[in-house]
């Protein structure tokens, strides 16, 4: 948090661990050589926060384009992801999100995509969109708009869990599910706590101060986010117990998320 009570940007290129510098250099070259409609590029996650672990952490990237992303853009992003993952053993996968600068700056995304860029993303290339966005505070509005759509995700997670037949498929699903549940649990209590953190372990413990009866489940979610599991019992607990309770408590506390255009 900054001294004025707003949420400070959490990352910096100065914090990128030395082991990951070659990955970032290669990313720059590939992005510039591929996306002619690029407005700006950003890093987010553990690498710009300086907490990344070689061989464990993934590379998280946001590309803001001048126009809406096309299928061709998504194919190029996937190609870069695969190439970086093959070339650099210090990352455990790469993920590139695509969005238009116009969408990220829109009123509908002001407290979701806009907050993401302004507070959780570190500028890498181009003009920083954060210059056109407000300073954010840990309010109920921010909680609702960032994570108030959990209920809409649960049916898809259930379908994927039911269709999973291998340990690999269950591990692949367990990571995003558990990460989202921990972040939703944290933002549920964020306005009461009055601050921000992206640390999953800390998020789970802070959540437990307000909901001690669910702390054990949230600790399991945080552990799964760090080390994905193939245990179907854990997936079932996350998706069929913690998830529905959390979605209902979230809506009761913060209200329903504003519908997005075209959603």
TrEMBL record:
It comes from Amycolatopsis deserti. This is Polymerase nucleotidyl transferase domain-containing protein. InterPro entries: NT_sf, Polymerase_NTP_transf_dom. Residues 40-86 form the Polymerase nucleotidyl transferase domain.
């Amino acid at each position: 948090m900054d001294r004025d009570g707003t949420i400070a940007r959490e990352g910096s290129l100065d914090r990128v661990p030395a082991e990951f510098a070659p990955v970032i250099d290669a990313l720059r070259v590939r992005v510039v050589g591929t996306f002619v409609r690029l407005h700006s590029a950003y890093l987010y996650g553990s690498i710009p926060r300086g907490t990344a672990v070689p061989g464990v952490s993934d590379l998280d990237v946001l590309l803001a384009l001048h126009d809406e992303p096309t299928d061709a853009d998504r194919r190029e992003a996937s190609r870069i992801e695969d190439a970086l993952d093959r070339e650099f053993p210090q990352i455990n996968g790469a993920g590139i999100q695509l969005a238009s600068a116009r969408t990220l700056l829109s009123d509908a995304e002001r407290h979701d995509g806009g907050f993401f860029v302004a507070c959780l993303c570190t500028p890498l290339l181009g003009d920083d969109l954060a210059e056109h966005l407000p300073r954010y505070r840990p309010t109920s509005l921010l909680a609702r708009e960032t994570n108030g759509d959990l209920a809409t995700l649960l049916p898809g997670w259930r379908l994927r869990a039911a269709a999973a037949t291998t340990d690999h498929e269950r591990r692949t699903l367990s990571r995003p599910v558990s990460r989202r549940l921990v972040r939703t649990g944290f933002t549920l209590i964020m306005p009461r706590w009055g601050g921000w953190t992206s640390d999953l372990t800390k998020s789970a413990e802070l959540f437990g101060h307000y909901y001690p009866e669910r702390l054990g489940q949230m600790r399991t979610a945080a552990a799964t986010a760090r080390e994905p599991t193939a245990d179907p019992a854990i997936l079932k607990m996350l998706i069929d117990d913690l998830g529905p309770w959390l979605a209902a408590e979230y809506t009761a506390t913060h209200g329903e998320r504003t519908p997005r255009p075209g959603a």
